[in-house]
Design brief:
The structure is a homotrimer. In chain A, about 20% of the residues lie in helices and about 30% in strands. Chain A is of the alpha/beta class. Chain A has 3 domains: about 5-90, Udp-n-acetylmuramoylalanyl-d-glutamate--2,6- Diaminopimelate Ligase, Chain: A, domain 1, CATH 3.40.1390; about 100-300, UDP N-Acetylglucosamine Acyltransferase, domain 1, CATH 2.160.10; about 310-345. In chain A, the strands form 6 sheets. In chain A, strands 8-11-14-17-20-25-28-31-34-37-39 form an 11-stranded parallel sheet, with no helix packed on it. In chain A, strands 9-12-15-18-21-26-29-32-35-38 form a 10-stranded parallel sheet, with no helix packed on it. The first copy, chain A, has a 9-stranded parallel sheet with strand order 10-13-16-19-24-27-30-33-36, with no helix packed on it. The N and C termini of chain A lie far apart (about 95 Å). The interface between A and C is large, with 76 and 77 residues. Strand 39 of chain B pairs antiparallel with strand 40 (about 305-310) of chain C.
């Protein structure tokens, strides 16, 4: 899709400096751009590439304007303006209502005529599917599920019984929403399953990554609030609540009954114990090990970055003896005090 | 399903104090319960909620009876009694034998007439499917697989060639059982695949979580013993043996040829190196890094919990210099000894 | 399949000592082998089993010949010879061209007549599928995908729009290739998706494990070079480049825009931050936390192995006070210096 720079500037609410009659057809990197391309500049490391670009126009911030040889779209939040521009140039294709002939749909499922039910999709009893929902190939929509308008199951998504999906939700292939959680009681050495009777509820504008799993609640629902973004291969345990606009990167695992506030960012491969409370605006760096509740906003970290193996082995040996070090240090301090006393008692 | 308290107490083998003629229809939290609800009380933190509950009855332990305003079911293991009660109130629906018309079944597959083969299921050559097995939508049952009675593939489960599944096994969506393991020899810089000729065998009462992967053995079988419970997103490498009733939480990875004993619990995101031997009754806390065999029963841990980023950076800098610290400490001790010798040699 | 030892030795280019007319029918462990079995010996720990084996022949290195009671195939790289022998004895079944009647194929998809499109497979518009490709049951091949000759999607593989797959690629069940990556701009507290316009390109001889996810690039392509082997449950972020013959073990996560060189080995559950550059021949041990670029070849590690919980708690308490230790150590050193000065100033 092509758009005039003038119109683009208007839609983005940014200032254009350059020929507004020119069209851009696509987004590109600064290096690969040609005179039909729109680019984004945000990292000063690449200033040489900016100066040499042949793009039609570049979205950037005021201080970078002077280094750009072509038309500019000046924004106080260039990355956001770029995201919006790219969405205009590459709109999601409109959903055409209908059922693929290979789909298997329960007679009492309630499907809006504007929704698309793709190849090999299974829709079970009592499911409700709203306007313009896209159910990509191989998806399974369990009994009693509800999917609100404009949501998109890309392909091969599994929604287990009773899962509730909000509006404009995007779910990637392989995601499993609403599995019966991992709850057991012990009967001697045997584990006895505790029926998991809650559901999963996804708010509006939620995104769930590929092969990510969200377990249903034991009694109450697992809640993923509006605007939450989950990357790939994440585990969300039963009864978790994830607050609005919190984003979690790939390979993280949140144990059951943990509640995370709003506007948190959780980097990749973070692990959280169960039954914790994490406040709003709490941020964790990658691979952080979270074993206690955190109420204070801020940035939290753990883990020791990789180092050459020989150095690691040496430090490891020392770590194992930290306890001994502490005792030796204390003993030295006591002796030092004694020495000082003795020195002070010395005959002058 | 509704059940009389009297009958419930009898079935659970617990003592009822209250009106045995009353029916309970569902389980609920103490707060949301009404006069048709059965509740569980186990955590004294919620004693106020117990005192205020409107439930029909509460399952609890003797010392908590006095705080409960309604009928009680008194158990020495209330959590187990609750699990059993919930199973009675929410029985798995009975499996109706048959084949969904969309299923694709090899002519020589042997399927018990009481088993259900769901929509979009593929059953390959020579597979054997026992009584009352439930093969949920989109499951793939590879050639030569065997599934014993009363097992349940919830949906979209993949059993690769030759996988053997015991009785009452529960496998969640997206699980892949029997993938050819990760085995290669080096030919210069190239990797050459080693055919993986073993199978995966799952014992009775095993549970496999969503998107969990269990690789087939290289020559002998990978074994998951009776009663093992695996959560979501777990990797079990080729040739592993997991002992009876061992439970592993989500996001853990067990490298090839590692053998884990019985009655172990392995918390979330634990990583184990290959070719280890872990004894019975060994327990690991979350994110533990297991690089050596552990024979002694007990609780094992590793990892440093998250802390405010600034504090972490400071400690990290110190950790990197631990080796130097050790040397400085030793040097101080030597000097101290020297000082003491000198002090002892002082003229009095 | 059976093969004469003489012929086998010729094909492997190794020296046979023993009866060349004898057939081997299968590979087996030393213990289970009978007179139709071929074995491999590589670990001297098992020398007793070698001495007692009843195999037809054993592949081993020269120094081990004297301990073997049966025919030997002597190789300088016995593990490679074993891999090649096993491939000869257990050849992949030849692919029979055709379409399963349940497959759904777009009219303009271009499928080589020697390729197999299995049960429940979906092939979308414009996809190109080369000679002898095997598309196992339940796979989804998105619009504009290309799969080159002799590649194999085992079952239930998802290739998202535009994914390019080289020759002899092996992709295991549940893998999701080409998901739109995790890219957002912030609009106040809301996340705004950035369209992901690149593709994923897999080179020749690549292997992708079960439930592994590889995200498409934001603008340029995510590249997985020839000979790369990825195990199960791995996340590869958008714009990553993984160099030739690099192998990554299960549960690892590589964040977006990180570039890894050739011939690297990355053990299980390793986490890498984004925008890093890892050189050739760099190796990481399991659970390593990689936060900086590494250019020097070598072995890198991090993490503290599990220890008994009580010991861990003690060391953890010490770790939290490392900063204080450092200060106390420094103070001791200063006092010691002062003491020494004072001692030196003592009246003699």
């Amino acid at each position: 899709m092509a758009i005039k720079l003038q119109e683009l500037a208007g839609r983005l609410g940014v200032e254009l400096r350059g020929d507004g009659e020119r069209y851009v057809h696509r987004v590109e990197t600064l290096v690969r751009a040609d005179d039909a391309s729109l680019c984004f500049f945000g990292d000063r490391k690449y200033r040489a590439e900016l100066s040499a670009t042949r793009a039609a126009a570049v979205i950037l911030a005021e201080p970078d304007v002077e280094f750009c040889p072509v038309a500019v779209l000046v924004s106080t939040n260039p990355y956001l303006a770029y995201a919006q521009a790219a969405q205009l140039l590459y709109p999601e294709p409109a959903v055409t209502g209908g059922l693929h002939p290979s789909a298997v749909v329960a007679p009492d499922a309630c499907i809006d005529p504007s929704a698309w039910i793709g190849a090999m999709v299974v829709v079970e009893e009592g499911a409700e599917i709203g306007p313009r929902v896209f159910a990509g190939p191989g998806s399974i929509i369990g009994s009693g599920c509800r999917i609100d308008e404009d949501s998109r199951l890309v392909a091969r998504v599994t929604l287990c019984t009773g899962t509730q999906v909000g509006k404009r939700v995007l779910i990637h292939p392989g995601a499993v929403i609403g599995r019966e959680g991992f709850g057991f009681a012990k009967d001697g050495e045997r584990w006895v399953r505790i029926p998991q009777l809650g559901r999963v509820r996804l708010g509006d504008d939620v995104e769930i990554g590929a092969n990510t799993t969200v377990d249903r609640g034991a009694l109450e629902d697992t809640l993923i609030a509006d605007g939450v973004k989950l990357d790939n291969l994440i585990q969300i345990g039963h009864n978790c609540h994830i607050g609005e606009n919190t984003a979690i990167a790939a390979c993280s695992g949140i144990s059951g009954s943990t509640r995370i506030g709003s506007n948190c960012t959780i980097a990749g491969a973070v692990g959280m114990a169960g039954h914790l409370t994490i406040g709003d605006d709490v941020h964790f760096t990658g691979m952080a090990m979270v074993t206690r509740s955190v109420t204070e906003p801020g940035l939290y970290s753990s883990g020791i970055p990789a180092m050459p193996n020989a150095q690691w082995r040496r430090n490891l040996a020392r770590f194992r003896r930290l306890d001994g070090f502490a005792r030796r240090l204390k003993s030295l301090e006591e002796k030092q005090d004694q020495t000082n006393i003795e020195l002070q008692q010395e005959p002058e």
